[in-house]
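Task: fold both queries, return tokens.
Query 1:
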Amino acid sequence: MLEYHSLNEKDFFKSLDYSFSDIVVFNATSRKLFHNLDHLSFGLSDGSYDSGNLIFTHNDPNDLYGTENEMNTFFLRLKTPDFPFHVYAEARSIEKEGLVQQRFLTGYFTTPLTKFSESREIDWKTREAKVGANSHLGPVEVDFSHTEKRFEALGEKVLYDSYPAAAGRALDTYPHNLVPDLESSSDTVKIHTSHTGRIVAAGTYTTGEKENRDSGARADYWNAAGDLTITPVKNLAIFFKYRHYDLTAENPDTVTITGLNPVNTYTYNVRDSISSQKDIMTGTIRYRTTDRLTLKGDYSVEKIQREVGTAWEVAPETTKSTTKLGATYRVMRKLTAKAEYSHTEIDDPAYNFDPDKSDTAKVSFTWTPTQTISALVSYSGVREKREDMEWEGTSPVVGGERETSRDQALGSVTVLVGKRSSVTTTYAYFRNQVDDTISYHDGTGAVVLEPGLVPYDDVAHVGSILLTHALTDAITITAEASRSYSRGSFRNSGAVPDTTGIAEFSDLKVVEDICAAGVEIAFAKDIGTEFRYQYREYNDKVDSSNDGTTQIVLATMSVKW
């Protein structure tokens, strides 16, 4: 089978499949596309700004950014004619090249602080190869594979810019923002019993290594997984899962950079990498009590141990336990309800923004009263809390808290009008609120906490309607429209001196409208075309500088053979 789709020389898809009596199976695929990238601006028309304490310099304000991305894959599997033994090989290459935006600081140790933006040409190549074999050996099936992967950065692998004299570093042009070459390899063994029967078991073991060829940093790891499924009676299933992850990471103690003048060198210390061991154990019970009701319970424990140096502000050990309860109930023949609740307790969270308590609830109803009407209503909510946060500074402080609530609701109704038309209306609600203690460092580096909780709140309402109509078996037209209302607010009390005036975070209020229409035409079984038009209007009620409209017309032709 040969398949080919093409929009232009930068956007195409090609695939070739071949099979001979299941003894030889072959596939080759090539995919390429062009990805337009946003050009992030400092909000300055002339590309520069100087306040005395802060300098923005935009070297290429008019450049257009984008990358060509091409992925090629290859797969070959050979099987012995009269015995279930297979050998296989896989290969994949990914190439990305184009022009991207690089933003960086050059005045970190000095005043004024200088922020730059400039264009950067990239040419990145990734190569991955995998070989393996598997076979049925009596009651079990075994698979072994070896994988090699390489990443190579060509183009502007490293940038050079002038850095001011500071902290033992002389004024000179130094390298920065290096994109390193990477390589890795791994070996994996998989084994599992027959997937039929009352007891099914599976296990996986992987060992491998990764290396940064430029810096010398490396990581050795091994992972293990075990699964056991027991079905003692018809309506009862019990699942046990175990996962282990072991990571040993190493890096050089120091790194030295050299300016264009070889006399100018600067050596800085590198924090030790974090090595860790993680164990996850999960037990699940699923019981179908009646033809209408299915119950599910789940309990898991996750423990992480980290080997951290004094430079890291992260907990050396974290334990997380989660309990989940769920049910699926068919209220009536055409009405089904699902509900799930989970509670998580975390001892010594890794970072300040991680909660130590979390509760999640989900509920949904699916209703199909007639063959022409279907409806869905769902809600999910998350409540997180963190107490006794830790703040690092010249005088470490423990205190403050963080509360987070997230809500999402969705309602959708689809109505079939006749045999060729349908109408779908949807409403979605999103809300995210964070009440947080904020810390500041004073001139001595000591931590000062703002009293009370600082609120940050986002809310969005989205309504949409979609109409479809099949004029004939070969022609389908669609029309859709949506409107979204989004708002956000951030208010700090300013109780700590010189912490007010963050106007960029204060208010957000946006209305966005989208209208689209399209027609799909099938000239034959394997030949078709599509025409689409979209109009989008963005209206910022607070800052009109981003207001505007976008109109898109798209025509595509597809051929399969």
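Query 1 returned. Query 2:
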Amino acid sequence: MKVASVLIPLPVPEAFDYEVPEALSLANGDLARGDQVAVPLGPRLIRGVVSEVFETTGSNRRLKAIDSRLDDPPLPAGVMDFVEWAGRWTLSAPGEMAATALKGLRAPRPRPERRVRRVGERSPSRATPARTGVLEALGDRAMPPADLARAAGVSSGVVKGLIDEGVLEIIEIAAEAAFDRPDPDHAPAALNGDQAASATAMADGVSGGGFRPFLLDGVTGSGKTEAYLEAIARVLRADPAAQILILLPEIALTQALIERIAARFGAAPAEWHSGVAPPRRRQVWEAVVAGRCNIVVGARSALFLPFVNLCLIVVDEEHDGSFKQEEGLVYHGRDLAVARARIEGAAVILASATPSLETLWNAQSGRYDWLRLGARHGTAVLPDIALLDLRQNTPDPQTWLSQPLRLAIGETLARGEQTLLFLNRRGYAPVVLCRACGHRLTAPDTDSWLVEHRYTGRLVCHLTGFSMARPKLCPSCGAEDSLVSVGPGVERVEEEVRQLFPEARTAVFSSDTAPDARSARALIQKMTDGEIDILVATQAAAKGHNFPRLTLVGVVDADLGLRGGDLRAAERTYQLLAQATGRAGRADRPGRALLQTWTPEHPVLTALAAGDRDAFVEAEMAEREAASLPPYGRLAAIILSSENAAAVEKTANDLAQAIPNAERLEVYGPADAPLALVRGRRRKRLLVRADRDVNLQAFLRAWLQRVKVPGSVRLTVDVDPYSFL
């Protein structure tokens, strides 16, 4: 009997076996790995992907038979290897990983295009000049009715009359996306010596064949994008069928890069992220698997696209925490990009001005080729960075900008230049509390504080999305008009800026004011065109953008990210502030950055002010090594949640009692998560720390197999966690 193991989109740890009917093989040839099939599961048919086909002489259980092989394209071998590896690495169900690779096929097909064509040699009963003109413009082609009317210079009624008379007929043509082939010689950029050398090394890495990882480490404004675009051009010159994937951490960054790629190669790349309409995503998926699409720019989920000739992956801003997916399937896009390149035998470029410590460690260890761009491109120079000690320059009560920063903004305005005020905190105020009883307003069934938004007049939970109108009475003690806003958000800083500089054109850039890609692009374009004088922004404006007139960056609260017990707090703060200050002086005007801080002696801030990244990295690496934390050790988190607090408590205790004996490994917890209540679900966490050479996944599998988790409790495994909430 021939049996196929089929991956189905369910949270089960392995494939399901089905009998392969002889008639199925006779009709369409032998079933193979990657084929898509319809299989019975209970009373319904479900789509699955064949992971293996094998012969067996018999079975002690009766297998159900595959219903049919689907007409959709099979997943390429590299994709199958990748989704199965990703499932093992993240301890996720392999069928759910395979379903992610099929996501484009779940989207509806675009509506067929309606066109008209001539019916044989039929002629109209009355040949007017307008009708004759329509038939001459059409010829033997098929055209959309509106286009035909415009081409003939007539009204749409003339075309409709010919259709009604049977001279023309309407046909429907399936919409198929056409992706023009990029021309590597269309508009090559003028590169400096470091850029050219890096591009050559990266292109040679691809042409040499096999897995080749690169760290493209360049200061802000050094031209990393031009360097890797030149490498892509050389790859396409050598192999016009090569496929390249470029990953970005934010949707807002895609349009600018797409425009640069279109200008460089004379053809726009495909786009893949949640902001792309589902029918278009299906077209991209089908074009990728057919080899009709060379370059894709997308978010982390683009890693699962069915490339058939993937030669190069670029992870731009590789340090960015947005590459970590926290909901549903939990994975890190950067790490999976390296894995996919290894599986496909491709090259991977990790590009950043502030590389993650994990990537730097791999480069220092010789695992990655380390390419450096140490100076800004052209005449631009790095901005001067100064620390403003708020103990000596304390802002006035209920204000947030110190006098030196105010003076700098005024000077910048007088020169006709732009200012960016950076505060990574959305809304108007992060906390609303009652002066009478001290109650802090939180979202229902959640420990998260409500953030005040003055633009909408509402209090919002940024964790769950809950919002409510600001109440007049304290919900705890009932006191009237006792609620006060505590601390600044970007809206509150903008309010202060408008009072100080009423003549300035001021705007706020955050995920609230620019909630989608279109509005973000519009705001970025206004800033680029000089239509904004002062931009108050969160991290949405701190990465990847190039504003030629921006010469001053003011960081309102440089200490913000240093608070809390996150092991990556210092690293993230350094990266974010380096990226934010790096927006200044990127053209021919020198820039400067002023960082307001209560702790100017902090190592992160002194390293930034001195421009000494190496000193910061060395100190941070030493601390990680002493504690055997990443990159010198490995971490995994287990998060339990349930509406039943007792069930969570019991499951956590059961797990604690079932920990296997293991060397060079510790388990911490169980303990309440910092956000112990989210959406009505109680949460507990356990944290595993292991030495690098310990097989952490094998330990986790052995451990979890010892405990039966009740259906009311959700258990999530997060390998290499980035969030500790």
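Both queries returned. Flag for query 2: DSSP finds 21 helices and 31 strands in the chain.
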